[in-house]
Amino acid sequence: MKDEYGLGRQERLRLEVRGEPNWTEYDKQGRLELFYDENAQTFRAFQPVTIDNSRLVHPLADETAALDIGANNLVACTTTTGQRYLYEGRDLFERFRETTREIARLQSLLDDGRYSSHRIRSLYRRRTRRRDHAQDALARDLIERLYEDGVATVYVGALTDVLDTHWSVETNAKTHNFRAFRAFIDRLACTAEEYGISVEVRSEAWTSQECPNCGSTDRTTRHRDTLTCLCGFEGHADLTASETFLKRQTTVTRPMARPVRLKWNDHEWSESPRSCSNEERTNPQVASVGR
Ligand SMILES: [Zn+2]
Q1: Which domain holds residue 90?
Q2: Burial status of residue 87 (CB atoms within 10 A of its CB: 0-12, 13-18, 19 or more)
Q3: CA 64 / ligand 1 centre spacing (Å)
C-alpha cells in the first residue's frame, strides 16, 4: 500500500474510520491490526479496547451450556434451556485436507536441499487463516446465541474426537490440533467475556461414550455420528456427549428442542435446513426407561 500511495518508509498511512465505535474517549485503545482477508477480498481491522467495567454487558439469566468439541462436528452444544447447537466441521476439514495435500505435492517437487517455497508458505498461511476465520466466527455466533438464551456459564469438555484418526493425515497433526484447540478455547473465552459469560474447561469429563439412558460406557458403540447402546438407546453422538456433560455440571434440565445445525460457507455460519437423521431418538424423554 505504501508503494501504491507513494509513501516513504518512515511515513505513516492515515486511514479514516467509518461507523459507530462502541467505546468512548475514556476507554483505552490497543494496537490496531490490519489484514487482508483473501476469502472475502477485503481488508479487516482488529483493535482491542479496554472498557470500564460498569459498561460491560451482563448475562440475561443464570443458564448453563455445555460444549463438546471435536473435528467432524466442531462444536456440539446443549443448554439448560433445552437448546442444542451443532456446528459442522466436515466441509472445513475437507478444505483443510485439500490444502494439506497440495502442500505435500509441492514439497515433493522441490529441488534437493530446499524445504519450502513462496507458494508453499503462502498455502500454509492461507490454510491457517481460513481455519482461524471460521473458528473466530464460530465463537462469536455461538456466544451471541448463548447470550440470547440467558447463559451465564459455559462448560467446555476437552477433546473427544479431535485426536482421533481422521485428523492424523498430517505429520504432527495431534500437536497441531491440540494447539488449534487451545487457540479456539482462548478465542471463545475472549468473546464470552464481552458478554459477561464465563468459560470453564473441564478436561476430566469423558462423556463421549456414555449412554444417557443406562449410564454404561462399555455397552455403547459409536459409528460415525451415531451412538448406540445395548439398552436400546440411539442418538447423535456429539449432542449426546454435550448433554451428558451438561447434566454432570448442573441439575436443571428442560425438554430438548430440535437441534440447530450450522454450516460454514466461507463467510459465516448459517442454519442448515437439514435436520439430524437420528435426532428423533436423541431425546432422553422419549428414550428413557429409567435408571
Ligand atoms: Zn444404555
Answers
A1: 57-287
A2: buried
A3: 25
